[in-house]
Amino acid sequence: MSQEDRDDLLNLVIPFAQRLLAKYGEFFPFGAIVTTHGKKGLTQGYEGSERPPPKEVIDLTLSGMQHEAKTGKIRAAALCVNVRIAPPGLDETDAIRVTLEDVDGEAVNCFLPYVLRGNAEITYGELVAGRANPLIFVSPSAGHKDHTSSEA
Predict the structure, then answer these.
(1) What is the pLDDT of residues 98-127, one digit of tens each?
(2) Following CA atoms 96, 69, 140, 82 in sequence, which dihedral angle do they give, to the nearest 10 degrees?
(3) What 3-state class would DSSP assign to 39?
(4) Mean pLDDT value of segment 14-28
(5) What is the rounded distance in angstroms from the CA atom of residue 59 to the CA atom of residue 63?
(6) For 55-81, how does the pLDDT look when each residue is reduced to its tens digit (9 = 90+)?
(7) Of 10, 14, 32, 70, whose CB has the highest number of CB atoms within 10 Å?
(8) Three-state DSSP class for 100?
(9) Alpha-carbon distance 144 to 152, whole Å?
């Protein structure tokens, strides 16, 4: 994945998720894409209800991005989900998880831990990253691996 695409996607989704957390104290899963021509934008699956289960939103968002990837319309994508994580040696905490992927099959999970206090004050930790299994730029024989078990 090009560093520019990774930075562009992170700079698009992290501030958007932070604004939603500041305003609502939560956010529904959403995605972002970089087209083959370099255009960037947000995306989200919508199934019609006001408060759909996050898993349904994730599945619809992934499905749309997978279709765009298969048809060669995008070169990079991100899935942003509100999760609970338990970093080694630390207490369980909320985090913004961004899974970044590109057309070459590289996938990375980035986690931005946060603590939301009762008065809507949010304290953020350090962004950490690690390898991930591709969910969007996958061959039909690779199947779909579910990484949503930690959703909040």
Answers:
(1) 999 999 888 999 999 999 887 778 999 999
(2) 10
(3) coil
(4) 93
(5) 6
(6) 888 999 999 999 999 999 999 999 999
(7) 32
(8) strand
(9) 21
Model pTM score: 0.85
Interval 39-43 mean pLDDT = 93
**Is residue 151 in some structural domain?**
no
> Could you give the 3-state DSSP secondary structure of residue 3?
helix
**What's the CA gap between 74 and 72, in Å, rounded?**
6
Domain membership of residue 149 (yes or no) is no
Number of domains in the chain: 1
Determine, yes or no, domain membership for 150.
no
* Closest by CA position to 80, among listed 3, 4, 2, 135: 135
Q: Judge whether 13 lies within some domain.
A: yes
Other beta carbons within 10 angstroms of residue 18's beta carbon come to 16
Host domain of residue 17 = 3-142
